[in-house]
Design a protein that fits this description.
- By secondary structure, this protein is an alpha/beta fold.
- It has eight helices and 15 strands.
- The protein starts with 52 loop residues before the first helix and ends with a strand.
Length: 327
């Protein structure tokens, strides 16, 4: 056999910090702004705490016409994969066709069963708080070492969000209001304010904001553009704005919510670091907002009841969603 060169190895130094019995890094420091400790030193839900019963009940009153919009991408079936994870693998263990072809199995009944192998962040999805950290720590100071391939997220698992993401949804159709390039634009806090003014709507504490950049619809409708790696999204200055507004969740019609590439001289995905690790913000990606946006433009109503249910996959760091906007 021809010689195989050894891969270069980076130098490694053992950490100088320690971790307590709750899985918290002693002396860990959040960035600013942050929500560490706001809902308790051991909180694992982050801004989901803002989706209070009172706010949910009030948001239910926004369902006035009964019109419903699924914001999810179709999964499998040969649909184009707009994300960055592998395609879904959809298999059948038994079908009614087997019965009709003389293979009725042990019980001889006409039944079908199927199996899906799906990366939990391959389609319309929620980022769990165990998904992203820096300086060896996650949201609320939990140690990044608590997420392992053997056991998953032993703290901050997405199953902590299983009681549902329900509240007042607000669409910010920046693509329509500002006529931005879906691949090249960085959406600042000022642009969000301008879009709100154009829509005649205000942001309230505990809201769920849906940001339409135009990326997903453009990507799906123009196969020749799918080789492009840039995407429009939120600028880093929106972190302070979102914290000031006390927003519960932000989702967008792109892969990362934030603009790619990010600010020059910054580490990769700086918005994710600040949103997930510091604010404990709920973050949704690959939301299909085009039909909802068209309806909002027609009737001038940009607020609605928002409902989404993460899968209660224990210790997972993300979950597929079928978000529903009800007007």
């Amino acid at each position: 056999m021809r010689p195989v060169p050894d891969a270069p190895l980076p130098e490694w130094q053992p950490p100088t910090y320690s971790v307590d019995g709750n899985g918290k890094v002693r002396g860990a420091q959040p960035g600013s702004p942050n929500n560490w400790g706001r809902w308790g030193e051991l909180d694992q839900k982050g801004t989901a705490n803002l989706l209070t019963a009172e706010r949910v009940a009030r948001a239910a009153g926004l369902a006035r016409t009964g019109k419903r919009f699924s914001l999810a991408l179709p999964v499998g079936g040969g649909q184009p994969n707009a994300g960055t994870r592998p395609d879904v693998l959809h298999l059948f263990s038994r079908t009614t066709g087997d019965f009709l072809l003389g293979d009725g199995g042990v019980h001889g009944v006409q039944t079908s069963d199927d199996i899906v192998v799906l990366p939990l962040q391959a389609t319309t999805q929620l980022d769990g708080h165990g998904h992203f950290g820096y300086a060896d720590s996650l949201y609320n100071g939990f140690w990044a070492g608590l997420v392992t391939a053997g056991s998953g997220a032993r703290r901050l698992g997405v199953h902590h969000q299983a009681d549902g993401l329900v509240g007042r949804g607000v669409l910010l159709d920046v693509a329509r209001a500002a006529d931005i390039d879906p691949f090249e634009s960085s959406i600042s806090a000022g642009m969000l304010e301008t879009t709100l003014a154009a829509h005649g709507v205000a942001v309230e504490a505990g809201d769920i904001l849906l940001i339409r950049t135009g990326f997903l619809g453009t990507w799906l409708d123009n196969p020749d553009l799918r080789v492009r790696r840039r995407q429009s999204g939120l600028a880093l200055d929106t972190i302070d704005w979102l914290a000031e507004k006390d927003v519960a969740m932000v989702a967008a019609d792109n892969r990362t919510v934030e603009a790619i590439p990010g600010p020059p001289g910054r580490p990769l995905l700086p918005w994710h670091r600040a949103a997930l690790r510091d604010l404990g913000l709920l973050v949704g990606e690959l939301f299909d907002l085009d039909d909802l946006a068209s309806d909002c433009a027609d009737d001038g109503v940009y607020e609605f009841l928002f409902v989404a249910s993460p899968l209660p996959v224990v210790n997972a760091v993300g979950s597929p969603l079928n978000p529903i906007a009800i007007k």
